[in-house]
Write a structure and sequence with these properties.
488 residues, 2 strands
Length: 488
């Protein structure tokens, strides 16, 4: 019943879903007439098709009795815990800070949470069948192919001053509230670190998993294989030129983890083939090894000189072996502001450990929780603390934010939701074909990108995490894994 209902409802909405995926790279669209968000920088263009899909697809599905996977329990209970934590705020004194009030922050926080969860449910419902999953992955490929072309134009303008910066900026301003950065590539995103997050969560796991497993996203021809390799190299190159230190490290980590997983699986296959007296596919391994060596050579000869143009990037390897401990390393490479925000947020959690201070309310308590050492030479925090500042502080770290605002109860439920995403994603390995291996490795890489990248996430409204979780949770649909057996 539910499968037929989803199929019936999704037909007229497939175009909207395609638009949502194509619009994902645009994060700060200028035209955003939503009350309370006039000053927000998170303005995803994909929000427009999302809102229509929520009304015409998700709500209709639920009102007609459509069921949801039972594994979503932790997420639903997290929402309840967040509501309870916020309602408890009204049992005590109300706060105001720099034009922000308890109610305005609560409304804003729940609006961003609702947007994020909407991305998740739309994605999950759209991935009910094998063809929907493969077509959605291809749409992501197309979306980031367009982004890669725009990123290469930005890179060309930065490196060789062509095309003209003013010309590119006039185009950028049509789809973003921020000018094109003069020295860093950021695609269609608001800032380079957001662009790096998009690459690491949404497309790098797809491309790398496809290359590691031999699953060709665009088809089985040689041209498709070359195009996929080309897009992978281009996006890694642009990831470097984003000069996002965290994004670059995460990207390299994903490439290493993916290669490690594939290496273990290949060794197991070689062992089995030898036992069965079958010759292993040494040709494929040799070609893949040559490509990896070429990638390393290009990285050393091209990436390092480009990265060395900026002192704050050079500090990453200069301080790596001379720092006394991890904390000293973070502080020495410019991590003081982030660490200060996180420490202040954690101090708020320690004072309100069970249910926290309510969703969106941490900023009211962080000013008094800032560590004393930030006043010495942390310019960003000093500006924040100025009585003339209009900034509203937040922990800038997903886990710390959850601890401060929903306490151990809400945080535990959300972490359980994230762990269940990995468990569901690993179920793809049950599919005994190349597509199953592809989706399994993709799930591991995307999950790692979300978890590691959460230390800089400060808004639930960014769709990257939620869409990735939607792909990971898809095996929770009854019968989907069986249907995927014949997906190739």
């Amino acid at each position: 019943m539910n499968g037929g209902l989803i199929k019936k409802l999704s037909r007229p909405n497939w175009f909207l879903w395609g638009m949502l995926l194509l619009f994902l790279p645009i994060t700060s669209f200028p035209f955003f007439p939503i009350p309370g968000f006039s000053n927000a920088v998170v303005r995803p263009l994909s929000l427009y098709p999302l809102l229509i899909l929520v009304i015409t697809f998700v709500l209709v599905y639920l009102l007609k009795g459509g069921e949801l996977p039972s594994t979503l329990g932790p997420l639903l209970f997290f929402i309840v815990a967040a509501v309870v934590s916020t309602l408890l705020v009204y049992a005590g004194p109300q706060f105001s800070l720099r034009g922000q009030t308890t109610t305005s922050r609560a409304i804003r926080a729940f609006a961003t949470l609702a947007i994020g969860i909407s991305y998740f449910f739309v994605t999950l419902l759209m991935l009910k069948s094998p063809d929907r999953i493969t077509r959605s992955i291809r749409l992501l490929y197309i979306s980031f192919s367009i982004t890669a072309v725009w990123g290469l134009l930005q890179a060309s303008s930065i490196l060789i001053n062509f095309p003209d910066h003013g010309f590119l900026n006039s185009i950028q301003r049509l789809i973003s509230v921020r000018d094109f950065h003069k020295y860093r590539v950021h695609g269609f995103a608001y800032e380079p670190s957001w662009f790096a997050s998009q690459i690491n969560i949404l497309i790098l796991p797809v491309l790398w998993a496809g290359k590691l497993t031999g699953f060709r996203i665009l088809g089985k021809g040689k041209v498709a294989d070359i195009l996929e390799w080309l897009l992978l190299f281009v996006l890694v190159f642009l990831l470097g030129l984003s000069y996002s230190r965290g994004g670059f490290v995460i990207g390299l980590g994903l490439l290493a983890v993916g290669a490690g997983i594939a290496g273990i699986r290949w060794m197991a296959q070689i062992r089995r083939k030898r036992q069965a007296d079958v010759n292993p596919d040494w040709k494929r391994l040799l070609v893949f090894g040559i490509l990896i060596v070429l990638f390393v050579i290009v990285a050393v000869k091209v990436f390092l000189p480009l990265l060395a143009r900026y002192d704050y990037f050079v500090l990453m390897w200069d301080k790596l072996f001379v720092s006394r401990n991890p904390l000293d390393y973070i502080l020495s490479i410019g991590g003081k502001p982030r660490l200060a925000y996180a420490e202040a947020g954690f101090e708020v959690f320690l004072r309100y450990p069970l249910f926290g201070v309510g969703l969106g309310q941490a900023g009211f308590h962080m000013m008094e929780s800032m560590p004393n050492w930030v006043y010495l030479d942390t310019t960003e925090i000093i500006k924040l603390m100025s009585p003339f500042s209009s900034l509203y502080p937040n922990p800038k770290n997903l886990v710390i934010s959850l601890l401060a605002e929903t306490g151990i109860v809400g945080t535990g439920l959300f972490i359980l939701f994230m762990l269940m995403a990995l468990v569901q994603g690993l179920r793809y390995f049950k599919i005994q074909n190349r597509f199953g291996r592809f989706m399994g490795i993709y799930s591991i890489l995307a999950w790692l990108a979300v978890v590691i990248g959460s230390y800089t996430l400060d808004s639930f409204a960014t769709p990257n995490m939620w869409i990735a979780f939607g792909f990971m949770y898809a095996p929770a649909w009854p019968g989907l894994l069986e249907a995927l057996e014949n997906a190739e």
